[in-house]
Design a protein that fits this description.
The chain is an alpha+beta fold. 47% of the residues lie in helices and 18% in strands. A hairpin with a 5-residue loop joins β5 and β6. α9 runs antiparallel to α10. The radius of gyration is 23 Å and the shape is globular.
Length: 357
């Protein structure tokens, strides 16, 4: 392969999720597809676990196959590559039109290994174009060929010393080196119905008890999973716990992380509502637009909560959390009523059946 330059399309602006890096990387690729809105409108439900951490998913995090319908992925065997071949292989896949999500040794003071998204290379500058995290934000970063090549043995060592890490990465996130590309055969035909289902699931907002067979009869040992609208009560439970000065589990990701995730989710729900109005507008009445406006007001309130929580983390002013905790049941009822009207009253069902069924 001769010298050259490849820069695949990438978009890291206004991505629907910045709180989960494994989803952000995929969305940065998907944002370049004409089906991006179809996909995000019909995917990414929210749940909260018993540790009061919030994630996109049904009752567990979204696994690698979740995106297989729209993203083609290929496993590149980390240990089959030599130090001399890693740069050549990455260039080859990028030249073939594949993005690479690859674990590297991150050049920071404390030894750290994390995935970056490679979207191009420049042979003149001898560097890869990547998306990675710097100062807690996703940014465009370049890595020299020499750095990737010289640090590659340390990446292998990392996986050898943490012998189960490769399996955990492969089944929950991605292989240490994963090639991805837009699936050209993806069809968004069912996305409006999937978006409707997503909104209906949000409206029901159920909770689940999740436990193993060994403790299924011992309710106290089961994990409580909040889904959809019930996540607002998980948020309130989290705030009440902080107000009371109670300890969280070691895995707790923080107050602002939870609030940011809920805010991201509400924005995606708003996208789903607008998407259905666009796709089914001919058979929807004026109530649909009113519901969208009302729900947008709810998202503004939740963004305000996020700012208040960020302020609390700086000042420890408990009154800020008490105000949010007081408002949550009110916002829950508002969202419940808005979704109820949107799902069940804004569609002229006889017309809908004639056109879409």
């Amino acid at each position: 392969m001769g010298k050259g330059r490849v820069e695949l399309a990438i978009n890291i602006e206004e991505i629907g999720c910045v709180t989960e890096c494994w989803i952000f990387n995929r969305l940065a690729i998907l944002k370049t597809s004409k089906y991006y809105e179809d996909w995000i409108a019909s995917h990414y439900p929210l749940y909260a676990d018993s540790d009061l951490n919030f994630f996109f998913g049904e009752t567990s995090i979204l696994l690698p196959f979740y995106h297989d319908a729209i993203l083609e992925r290929k496993h590149i065997n980390l240990f089959a590559l030599s130090q001399d071949k890693i740069v050549e292989k990455a260039r080859e896949m990028l030249a073939d039109g594949y993005y690479l999500i690859m674990t590297i040794k991150v050049p920071v003071e404390m030894e750290s290994y994390h995935e970056v998204l490679l979207y191009g290379f420049d042979d003149e500058e001898e560097c890869f174009f990547t998306i990675g995290i710097q100062e807690r934000l996703f940014r465009r970063i370049t890595y020299n060929y020499s750095y990737i090549r010289n640090s590659f043995p340390e990446v292998k060592r990392y996986y050898r010393e943490n012998e189960c890490m490769g399996m955990g990465s492969a089944i929950y996130y991605q292989f240490p080196i994963t090639a991805m590309g837009i699936n050209k055969n993806y069809s968004p035909e069912n996305c409006p119905f999937e978006a409707y289902f997503k909104l209906d699931d949000e409206w029901h907002g159920v909770c689940h008890m999740k436990g193993s067979l060994q403790n299924m009869e011992e309710q106290n040992n089961s994990e409580l999973i909040y889904r959809g609208l019930s996540c607002l009560y998980a948020l309130k439970k989290m705030l009440d716990k902080e107000i009371a000065g109670e300890m969280f589990s070691d895995s707790f990701r923080g107050l602002s992380s939870a609030a940011k995730k809920v805010s991201e989710h509400q924005n995606l729900i708003l996208i789903s509502m607008r998407y259905l109005r666009e796709k089914w507008g001919l058979v929807m009445n004026g109530m649909a637009e009113s519901c969208i406006i009302e729900y947008e007001n709810c998202t503004i309130k939740i963004k305000r909560w996020l700012n208040m929580i960020l302020k609390y983390e700086q000042t420890k002013t408990v009154e800020l959390l008490k105000e949010i905790a007081f408002e949550i049941p009110i916002v829950y009822r508002d969202e419940y009523d808005v979704l109820d009207l949107f799902l069940h009253k804004s569609i002229n069902w006889n017309e809908f059946n004639e056109v879409f069924i």
